[in-house]
Each structure stands twice: as C-alpha cells, then as structure tokens.
Design a protein that fits this description.
Elements: H1 3-9, H2 12-21, H3 39-43, E1 47-50, H4 59-63, E2 70-73, H5 84-89, E3 92-95, H6 97-116, H7 119-129, H8 135-139, E4 147-152, H9 156-165, E5 170-175, H10 181-187, E6 190-191, H11 194-200, E7 203-206, H12 220-225, E8 231-234, H13 243-252, E9 256-259, E10 279-281, H14 293-308
Parallel strand pairs: 1-2, 2-3, 4-5, 4-7, 5-6, 7-8, 8-9, 9-10
Helix pairs in contact: 2-14, 6-9, 6-14
Length: 326
C-alpha cells in the first residue's frame, strides 16, 4: 500500500495488534514490487496486507513472492491489484469491503431522508430570504411518509441501505438482475424492472458495480423517466451516470441530485454542478474516512487472525464473482 495509507489506516493500537497476529515488521511498507530493497521482505512473505495504492499483483510480481499464499485487503474493491495470476496461483483473498460498505450506506440513507424533506430547496429559500419563511410552502408535498425509494443494485451497500431504511415509513423498490422476487421479499422490498423503478420512485439511489454493461446505466433516455422533482443519488461510480445528460436535467431544475462520485472523478471547474442549488456535490467522501478507517483496519486484522488460526475467511473474495461485483 501507499505509505500514507498505512499511516491513515493503522493507529498504534492496530499496529500493535498486527504485530501479535503476524510475524511482521509494521514499519515495512511496499508500494513497488520491483524495488530491490523490498525483495527480502517479499520473498519470505506468506501473506500480504494490502490497501489503497497497492500495485497490481501480476505474474511477474508474484515471482518475487514464492511463499505467498493469501492477500488480505484493508479496503473495499480488490479489482485494482488482484489479477488473474493470483487465482492461477491459488491464492486466497479477503477484503474489508463489508466494513467499508457501512459508512457509504449511512451517507446514502442520510441523503435519502434529506431528499424527502426537500432540504436543498429549504436551504436555498432560507438563504435567499434571510427571514422567516413559510415552511409548509417550502416543503410542499415533500416529506418521508410513504415515499418510494428505488435501490439500484443489491450489493453490500445496497443491502445495507435497505436494512437501514426498514425503520422508516418508506416503500422500497429494488432492481438487481441477480435477485428474484423471493429473495427481494426476504429483503423486505419489491423487485421491479429498472425502468419501472425509475418511473415509480421519488428517490433513486445507485449501488450497482462498475462494469462494461453498467456504463451510463442512467443515460439521457432513462434520466428522462424520472419524475419531476425526483432525486438521484450516486455513491457508486461516476461512470454509471451520463454526466452531460444529468447536467442538462439539473440545470433545467427538473431533478435534484446528491453526487459523491462523478465522471470525470473531479469535474472541470466550469461545471455548473458545483453551484446549482438543487445539487449536493461531495468529493468522494461517502466511504471510510477519519475514524471510520479503523473499522477497516480491524476487519482486515480479523481476517489475518482467522488465516493464522487455520479458519476460513469471514469475507472471502471469489474470483468468479469479480465479473459482477465492484
């Protein structure tokens, strides 16, 4: 991992725990598998504890790690560094994706409830008037009683969002091509086709993986299906939404949006999305940050401890599942 990531992820408590769980020197951080100074550590390594900034584990890199048996990722997706060579080698892989899903789901649920309460419109009116406003007029037909929320993708995060929404008086629709009606019923939601979900929802929140077939899942035509005044929330990947098409809808004022990710990842300074009153734009903060990073570190250490005790991983990564997950 990048050395700065080690410093952010692991505090003194977790570093001390790492030294108990594994025979290692926590001061050794490798971010280049071709670095000659790292060869000794890599050649004797049975396990890699990885994080953001880990270079790809190619066949050439793995040649420098003849004893390597497992990789534990102290973050979410492993797609940036786990390659086909890892599966050919028979490595086992685990990640802290479950831990990272929690703050994203919490951010999303906060956004859903704020959207229902029409917080962006209320803020804008209050900012403009700078005096007492008629809250009934500002909220209008808004509110969170009986609203319909559409969840796109029963991923870890999507499922956690569904779970966190249960205490609220909301109707939840789900689109996921791998979830049938019976499983949807177990989740407490209604499975529907994507276009039906988009047409029927007051708030649509995106939790699908970034795959070739999900690129611009929300294109101009699908965005046009959203109800006037609906809110689109994207905490997944920017590529799932056609930025130009969404920008046109938002500039028109027809839709609201909460966007933690965009395409490109950093919008150009001239983008109107920075200043539109109906857009909440944040710089990819929904995932683990601040003290939430400790949760991921300890989740990874839990997995390392299981490995050391000869137990199966609680959250293993399967090579065959990566083609349809984040």
């Amino acid at each position: 991992m990048d050395p700065s990531v080690r410093d952010a992820l692991f505090d003194q408590e977790s570093l001390a725990r790492l030294s108990v769980v594994a025979d290692t020197d926590p001061s050794v951080v490798v971010d280049d598998f071709t670095d000659p100074s790292a060869l000794s550590a890599l050649s004797g390594a049975e396990a890699l504890l990885t994080g953001w900034g880990c270079p790809p584990l190619t066949a050439e890199a793995l040649e420098r790690m003849p004893r390597l048996r497992t990789v534990v990722h102290a973050a979410g997706s492993v797609k940036q560094h786990i390659t086909g060579a890892c599966w050919e080698r028979g490595l086992t892989v685990a990640s802290a994706a479950g831990a990272n899903a929690l703050p994203v789901a919490e951010y999303t649920v906060a956004a859903i409830l704020f959207a229902g309460k029409r917080v962006l419109a209320a803020r804008q009116t209050y900012r403009r008037e700078r005096a007492r406003v008629n809250a009934i007029d500002v909220i209008g037909s808004g509110g969170n009683y009986g609203r319909t929320v559409g969840v796109v993708g029963a991923s870890r995060i999507g499922r956690r969002v569904i779970e966190l929404l249960r205490p609220h008086d909301l109707r939840v629709l789900l689109y996921d091509p791998y979830v049938d009606e019976a499983e949807a019923a177990r989740l407490g939601v209604v499975a529907v086709p994507l276009d039906t979900l988009v047409r029927s929802s007051d708030v649509v929140t995106v939790h699908a993986p970034e795959l070739p077939e999900t690129r611009h899942l929300f294109d101009r035509d699908r965005l046009a299906l959203l109800r006037d005044g609906a809110t689109l929330i994207n905490t997944a990947r920017g590529s799932l939404v056609d930025t130009a098409a969404l920008t046109d809808e938002l500039v028109s004022g027809r839709l609201d949006a909460v966007l933690d990710v965009t395409e490109p990842e950093v919008l150009p300074p001239t983008s109107p999305l920075y200043d539109l009153p109906n857009v909440l734009l944040t710089p990819h903060i929904a995932g683990s940050l601040g003290n939430e990073l400790a949760r991921m570190a300890h989740a990874a250490l839990d997995e390392l401890e299981r490995y050391g005790r000869g137990l199966p991983y609680a959250d293993p990564v399967r090579g065959e599942a990566l083609s349809r997950t984040a």
